[in-house]
């Protein structure tokens, strides 16, 4: 199993209903717990989303800089969101959860606690947000440089055929622009991390990615100045994803469906 896609052990199988009736068919679910918004996607149900805190607060109230800080609050928000579905999400499905690059085991344990409480899944898989966004944007093949400029967290990664080759993260995002940070500061952070990766990775892979240009997702992709500022400073083309705010959730949904169809896939 790749390092950027991990799985929790299987839990007990769901029993049949009364009178021997088969339980509901397993469902593929994707979850993206962002610092400004939380999104859920489920097969045959679509996407629901909601804010994960005050957009103008100095710190996230549920998720802060990519880390859950309120377990009960996150579980309550997810439960509220899935109640919007006309059909309930049955227990025992497969949940693919986006995680920021370089997330710790402790970070993943907290995410797992929330997902277990809300979905009671048979399997939880973690997929790096940048990888999910590349898949969701249909750009995972080949060498790809991708930047996810979120509300409170910036992630930059070099992918090779959909797998994370090198990655960096910085605790800065678009929400910091309303509290004194500048576009130039965010651009400089991205440029510095790319230069660091360029000095420590295979030159041919990075050169191929630079020739292709950088894929931009997250809140930063819809900012009026950031894409052009990044392109000018980095001297490469910057491609905004078609659905920058939901690209990661879409990719996680595709991963969940694949794992549901092929349960032994690693």
Automatic annotation (TrEMBL):
Keyword Transmembrane: no
SUPFAM superfamilies, sorted: Actin-like ATPase domain (SSF53067)
UniProtKB keywords: ATP-binding, Cytoplasm, Nucleotide-binding
Pfam families named in the record: MreB_Mbl
Principal location listed in the UniProt entry: cytoplasm
Keyword Lipoprotein recorded: no
Localization annotation: Cytoplasm
Matches recorded under Gene3D superfamilies: 3.30.420.40
InterPro entries linked: ATPase_NBD, MreB_MamK-like
Molecular functions per Gene Ontology: ATP binding
GO cellular component, one term: cytoplasm
Name this protein carries in UniProt: Uncharacterized protein
Species of origin: Paractinoplanes rishiriensis
